[in-house]
Amino acid sequence: MKKLVVIGDxxxxxxxxxxxxxxxxxxxxxxxxxxxKQRMNHEELADFIQSxxxxxxxxxNVTLPHKETVMKYLDxxxxxxxxIGAVNTxxxxxxxxxxxxxxxxxxxxxxxxxxxxxxxxxxxxxxxxGAARAAAITxxxxxxxxxxxxxxxVKKAKILSKDIEEKxxxxxxxxxxxxxxxxxKDAEILINCTSVGMKNKQENKTLVVSKMLNSHTTxxxxxxxxxxxKLLREAEIAGCxxxxxxxMLIHQAAAAFKMWTGKTPPLKTMKNTLLTxxxxxx
Length: 282
Fold this sequence. Notes:
Layout: E1 2-8, H1 16-26, E2 33-39, H2 45-53, E3 57-62, E4 76-77, H3 79-84, E5 89-93, E6 96-100, H4 103-113, E7 122-126, H5 130-139, E8 146-151, H6 154-167, E9 173-176, H7 180-184, E10 189-192, E11 218-221, H8 230-237, E12 241-243, H9 246-261, H10 267-281
Parallel strand pairs: 1-2, 1-3, 4-6, 7-8, 7-10, 8-9, 10-11, 11-12
Antiparallel strand pairs: 3-5, 5-6
Helix pairs in contact: 1-10, 4-5, 4-9, 9-10
């Protein structure tokens, strides 16, 4: 059996085994592959990568807090991972372990799936962490009218803005979250890339309430648990189109699945499995 894993710390919350194993079973690949979660600390990363070189593990997903740290142990990273500055997927290529990042393609595919056109739009991103980097760098390749990043730490947001300008040539405005109402009132797309609203953490909190929004704004929350965050409920009150994080999760997973197996995964099976689980947990 070929082993696939997701590593992180903590890791119990990960739904990657659920959706990947459903896809493997649907394609009758569960006779050849199985996918599990593995809690791992920083000190174990070097040995883990070596176990991949030795063939014990044929592919892996990487989640917090290892997305950046693990890069120093790899034999190479893709251009996408270099741009984002983090990896979420590892695969073997002629005995070398390569790091990739499928968050950007997952985010972009989710936008296309929901028929969201980003051209000539003002887009506001909340946050400047890993997910925000993936979203901002993906969007920077398009002819958006204005791209704005709001973050508690303006310094961190400025680092991301500088990276985008140097690597892609796109100017990005940066402001404190204190300016949130000023920037959201005419935003055409608003994307929450913070953890505010996540289940069991800040589930009943939101950075944006309905009075800050106009009905022409599309509001995207990359959080997928709960399926409808406080932000999305507020956006619905304002008459906005809303999108949760399930699409991004499924499509970033699908890209990794194809890397490891060479097969196109059954997206419908993955999505239905995820939604059934999340709806049962609400």
